[in-house]
Structure formats: structure tokens, C-alpha cells
Write a structure and sequence with these properties.
Helices cover about 5% and strands about 30% of the residues. It is mainly beta and about 250 residues long. It folds into 2 domains: about 100 residues, Trypsin-like serine proteases (Thrombin, subunit H, Beta Barrel); about 110 residues, Beta Barrel (Thrombin, subunit H). A hairpin with a 4-residue loop joins strand 1 and strand 2.
Length: about 250
């Protein structure tokens, strides 16, 4: 649903971000969605990314920020577990990919799987969204990972902003935006990360050890459309499903 200009344009990444995954079609090695490594065998992405692709049709690429660089690792999925995703409402937009062989420990984000729902970032929290998606409508995906900062807002405020467009913001959604900053096509499923203590990321982000995975890029009306934030699947709001799918419950 993302259309129009957007701006994941900054290259200044602080610390290793090997935990961001590129999901690629096997036959072409072309990127189609993002994801986040949350365990030895587990990658979290958006459910809508998995709707029309089988586990044997794509690969998970991690270990670097440049998709043409060296040191990348490729893993092949053996199973995909999709949440109770509602394509009309865009709610519960998470999916778990299990790889056949383990991912390197260095590619796992610290604090990715949140347990208590109160770990959802408060409104006004500065976060970071990362991806290899389009930089403008009709453009191309990029090979170098990009990021930008966005600020979370309450679901009530988000609902008020989307009401005239006829969309419903559910409890499993998290909204975040900044004027001129947003995710776009190809960024879907990729991470929205915030500091665990809720303090601002600052110019250039924060070390991985200080980050918490807050959301996965889900949908929006345009990209960086004035007055409308991006919408993310709320990881904390779906923590019970996530733990059960991994087998922690």
C-alpha cells in the first residue's frame, strides 16, 4: 500500500547491523522484503510478504549491509508460520521464518523478542526503520541498507489521521512517522527498532545492544505522505503469538 516518494536515505549506521535480513527470490537473487534475525533459526518478517511465496522459493540473506558485499550468509527456509493475518484489515501482520541451518550468533539482534506488552514504545519515542526498499515511487530497490528515524504516536492519534482514508488502526499495529521520512515498497517486513529505555537514538542510531525490536514494516498510504505515519506490526502486542510460534510456551 506504500506509494509515492519516501526517504530511507541515510547510510550512517552505528555498530553492526548484521541482524537485518534481506528476503530474496532464489531464481533471481532479487530482494522483495526485509526481516529481522531474532534467534539461531528464526527471522521475523511481515505476514503479507509471505502470502504468495513458498518456503522453497526464497532465501534469507544476512551478515552485511551491502547486498553486493562480501561475508554475506545465505540460509534456506524450511518452514514459514504466519499469524492470523487479516489482509483486508492489515492486522496481525507478522510471520516467522525458520531456517534449515542456524544463523550466525553475530546476526541476532539483542532483545528482539519482547515478552510483556508494556514494552511497546510510548508515544513520542524516536525509533529507526531500516531496509533495502524503494527510495521513490516507481524507483528501484537499493543494494546498500538505508535507514531513517521516525517517531511513534498513539493509536488513537493514528486512527484519527487515517479515519478519512477509511482505514482502521488495530491493537496489533504501531504507528510512527516524521515529515518526509517513511518506509516504502521493499521495506516491508523490515525492522523498526528503538532504544530499550525509550531515550532518543540520536544522529546515527545506537549500538545494537541498546536496541529493542518494536515493529515490522506493514503498510501505509503512500510513502511519507504529509499527515500520515507509516504503520508497523506491533511486536510487543503480538508477543504471545511470537513466543508460542517459536516454542517458548
Amino acid at each position: 500500500m506504500h506509494r509515492g516518494p519516501c526517504s530511507l536515505h541515510d547510510y550512517r549506521l552505528v555498530g553492526a547491523v548484521n541482524w537485518v535480513a534481506s528476503l530474496q527470490f532464489r531464481h533471481s537473487n532479487s530482494h522483495f522484503c526485509g526481516g529481522t534475525v531474532i534467534g539461531d533459526y528464526w527471522v521475523l518478517t511481515a505476514a503479507h510478504c509471505m502470502q504468495s511465496v513458498r518456503a522453497d522459493q526464497f532465501q534469507v540473506v544476512t551478515g552485511g549491509t551491502n547486498l553486493d558485499g562480501t561475508g554475506l550468509q545465505v540460509r534456506y527456509p524450511v518452514n514459514v508460520t504466519i499469524a492470523n493475518y487479516d489482509d483486508n484489515m492489515k492486522s496481525n501482520d507478522l510471520a516467522l521464518i525458520r531456517t534449515g541451518t542456524p544463523l550466525e550468533p553475530s546476526t541476532r539482534i539483542t532483545g528482539a523478542v519482547v515478552s510483556p506488552a508494556e514494552q511497546r514504545p510510548a508515544a513520542g519515542t524516536e525509533c529507526q526503520v531500516l531496509g533495502w526498499g524503494l527510495t521513490k515511487q516507481g524507483g528501484r530497490t537499493v543494494r546498500q541498507l538505508r535507514w531513517t528515524t521516525v517517531t511513534t504516536q498513539s493509536n488513537d492519534r493514528c486512527q484519527a489521521e487515517f479515519r478519512t482514508n477509511g482505514y482502521t488502526i488495530s491493537e496489533t499495529m504501531l504507528c510512527a512517522g516524521q515529515p518526509g521520512r517513511d518506509a516504502c515498497q521493499g521495506d516491508s517486513g523490515g525492522p523498526l527498532v528503538c532504544r530499550a529505555d525509550g531515550t532518543p537514538l540520536g544522529d546515527g542510531g545506537a549500538p545494537t545492544s541498546e536496541l529493542r525490536l518494536a515493529g515490522a514494516v506493514s503498510w501505509g498510504v503512500g510513502c511519507a505522505t504529509p499527515g500520515l505515519p507509516g504503520v508497523y506490526a506491533d511486536v510487543a502486542g503480538m508477543a504471545a503469538w511470537l513466543r508460542a510460534a517459536i516454542g517458548e510456551e
